[in-house]
Amino acid sequence: KYLACCRMEAEGLPVPPTIACENADDAVAAFEQLGGDVVVKPIFGSEGKGITRVTDGDVAYRVFKTLERLGSILYVQRFIAHDGYDLRAFVLGDRVLAAMRRRHDSDWRTNVARGATGEPVELSPNEVDLALRAARAVGAPIAGVDLLHGRDGRTYVLEVNAVPGWRALAKTTGVDVATAVLRFADAWRG
Questions:
Q1: CB of 80 within 8 A of CB of 159?
Q2: Which residue in 22, 38, 118, 180 has the most C-beta neighbors within 10 A?
């Protein structure tokens, strides 16, 4: 996850400021450096599980100490204020196969698995460009790219999922993602 973030940043893509740490003291320093409002993410995970927002220094210390005791890498990312939705673009080779807006009215996490609702969306040319560049930056010919419109007016690439789930996307958009992926993989092998 962190390597993907670094590769995207090296390609000039707008990613939230992120710091990976091995101990709680460094994570507390990162928390402060990132403005005292951060998202702590597991290195491996899906569907928004294990992602925590921390806005209090004492809570941050306890969270980081607990994760340190578990031997976890402390992945700390600046929280980007947004209006309750993000975009999931499903990249297949050199195109965006489908995209949806994921909206949650009562949680900052916008994963459908956490109760967000999906709606089909047509991405702007800039959003398509960001999604394709992000997938290329991490070397993922098949990818779920999460984009977030921050209240600061910028569009951020939150992450690239090289093994993206597509059940919610297929249901939301009506696109037969499974068949498209199989055809793509067959053509890619050939």
A1: no
A2: 38
Q: What is the largest CA-CA distance in the chain?
A: 56
Hey, how many other C-beta atoms are within 10 angstroms of the C-beta on 32? 12
What SS3 class is residue 160? strand
CA 94: distance to chain centroid?
20
Among 31, 100, 34, CA closest to 59: 31
How much is the pTM?
A: 0.89
Q: What is the dihedral of CA 126, 128, 129, 135, to 10 degrees?
A: 140
Phi, psi of 36 (to 5 degrees): 75, 20
Rounded CA-CA distance 154/177 in Å is 29
Of the candidates 104, 95, 89, which has an alpha carbon nearest to the alpha carbon of residue 166?
Answer: 89
pLDDT over 90 at 81, yes or no: yes
Tokens 């992602």 appear where? 51
Residue 58 pLDDT more than 90? yes
Residue given tokens 């960001």 in the structure block: 130
